[in-house]
Amino acid sequence: MEQKVANIAGAKASSDARIEKMSEIHRFSHAELDSLKILYPSGANDLRLKVFRDLRTRVYASAPGKNFTCMVTSVVPDGGCTYVVNNLAAAIALDKTRTSLVVDCNFYAPSADSLIVTDTDVGLTDYLDSADMGVESIVYASGIPRVRVIPAGGNTEGATERLSSMRMHAFLDELKTRYSDRYILIDAPAVGEYAADTRIMASLCDFVLLVVPYGKVTEAQIRSAVDAIGEKRLVGMVFNHM
């Protein structure tokens, strides 16, 4: 028993050390984070920090003791989905024993490049089109410590076919199982305009966060979005004022 406990403790220490040594090519300055509207511990906007820490806690409660794959979508385009994804990823990464991975699956309006601090040659669509490409070739460093990013890629046509492919299934499984301390956040297209794509993505993820742009959608639109996702998959709604 003592040996087993020692092994577990050793494995955790090794994981913590790996996370701490993750290569950070360039860290965003506070000014850059403010420009991107991303939280940081000493940020002037303490309310945003509090809100996303609370959201992080609520999402953790849906998968106690293990990592997860969470899709984030908005009721309508430009509803604040990327804002929520980026800040939730940053909130998770505030814990030095955890990492987060943002996957840009919004092929219609990709945005993850704004987080990446290196050149990007390939992304998700390139990976899905090439059986010889490994996941590690499309994961990039961000300007936020312990946050990694997978961009949408070059050829973003044929989104529905790619998202429903067996390679996409295997891709998400590998992301989740490769590192137990990594939490995957999927930036998905708006459910109001791309219901087929979001249904596919929702079925592949553990659960879904729905972003509701405050004062910009009707109750009927919200209900339609919830129906498209499925209530069993829905972990919560985030009302966005940004």
UniProtKB/TrEMBL annotation:
- Print the keywords alphabetically: ATP-binding, Nucleotide-binding
Please indicate if the UniProt record lists ATP-binding as a keyword: yes
The UniProt record lists the keyword Protein biosynthesis: no
Q: Which InterPro entries match?
A: Bact_polysacc_biosynth/exp (IPR050445), P-loop_NTPase (IPR027417), Wzc-like_C (IPR005702)
Among the entry's GO cellular component annotations, what is one? plasma membrane
Which molecular function GO terms apply here? Answer: protein tyrosine kinase activity
Name of the protein described by the UniProt record: Transcriptional regulator, XRE family
**Taxonomic classification:** Bacteria, Pseudomonadati, Pseudomonadota, Gammaproteobacteria, Cellvibrionales
